[in-house]
Amino acid sequence: MIQSATTFHAADALCARVAKVGSATCVGLDPVIDRLPSVLAPANANDNAHCARAIEAFSMGVLSAVATDAAAVKIQAACYERFGAEGYAAMCRVLEAARASGLAVVLDFKRGDIGISAEHYAASARATGSHWATINAYLGSDGIAPFLAEGHGAFALVRTSNPSGDALQTLALADGRTVAEAVADMVSALGAPSVGAGGFSLLGAVVGATKRAEIASLRARMPHTIFLVPGYGAQGGTADDVRACFTAPQRGALITASRSVIYPKAAAGVAWEQAIRDAARAFADEIRAIAHRA
User: Fold this and answer.
1) Which residues pair with 172 in a beta bridge?
2) Which residue has the higher pLDDT, 3 or 111?
3) CA 273 to CA 277: how far, in whole Å?
């Protein structure tokens, strides 16, 4: 189980969880009404309460299916918040269940602000029971530091997997670094004071699996930073793409897959929960294999 609040250090807890399940995998939980199993389809797709109940039921089923093989789950807040108060309440229950299952829990809400607003956002992330939150690093240390309070962790956007991110993140600065490299250096420096017993800081970095050519360079700039690696699977990231994210077998990276796990192709007669369980296990086996050769 994840450590208690009095001794909690998000990076150490994540390392312990990865060691327990033997695979550095994170299942992205992005429930979309149109893709739910037919048995969970809401009676009224235009009613927030009906939709919130449907995605909550699906999410709980996913958590049960992946908890044995996944190290973590990443809850996409937008998928719940779009359904208003009912959706937010459902998300909080899902987050609580994820934590209770022993999974490391990432709240994917990519907040970015400064001062008291950043403190409020950080407090809201902790209040949901998540262990990590995703944040936008563009505002610098003012927008990052509040998220590292009380042993909580944050994954700052450094090199994202979406193609349009290239237009900004690959721009060359006057000192020769790219924008992404400058953000990486900032993340490494800001995280240094919070390095835990496992050798990693509370400030992680989002580094897309689809940016293979840059991963080794970014890893060299952030040796004590855990990488949250989206883009594996449905977005095109492969085993060879993510290998350089690891600092050692199963250490330093958390590889994320969403659609390929929670919406798998299933043979006729296979229950949706079992199809997800099988997909999560196959994903874990893939990452076990590549991480041990990192």
Assistant:
1) 178
2) 111
3) 6
Helix, strand, coil: what percent of the chain each, to 5? 50, 15, 35
In a domain, 4, yes or no: no
Which residues does the annotation mark as catalytic?
A: 110
Burial 74-107 (b: 16+ CB within 10 A, else e): bbbbebbeebeebbeebbbebbebbbebebbbbb
Cβ atoms of residues 105 and 70 within 8 Å: no
Q: Which amino acid is at 24?
A: A
Would 129 be classed as within a structural domain?
A: yes
Q: What number of helices (H) and strands (E) belong to the chain? A: 11, 8
Structural domain includes residue 117: yes
* Average pLDDT in the chain: 93
Domain that holds residue 151: 10-291
pLDDT in tens, 32-54: 999 999 999 999 999 999 999 99
Whole-angstrom distance, CA of residue 26 vs CA of residue 263: 15
Reading the block at residue 147, the tokens are 């998220």
Question: CATH number, domain at 90?
Answer: 3.20.20.70
Q: What is the percentage of the chain residues whose pLDDT exceeds 70?
A: 95
Show the tokens assigned to 242: 């993510």
3 within domain boundaries: no
Higher local confidence (pLDDT), 232 or 3? 232
What is the count of structural domains for the chain?
A: 1
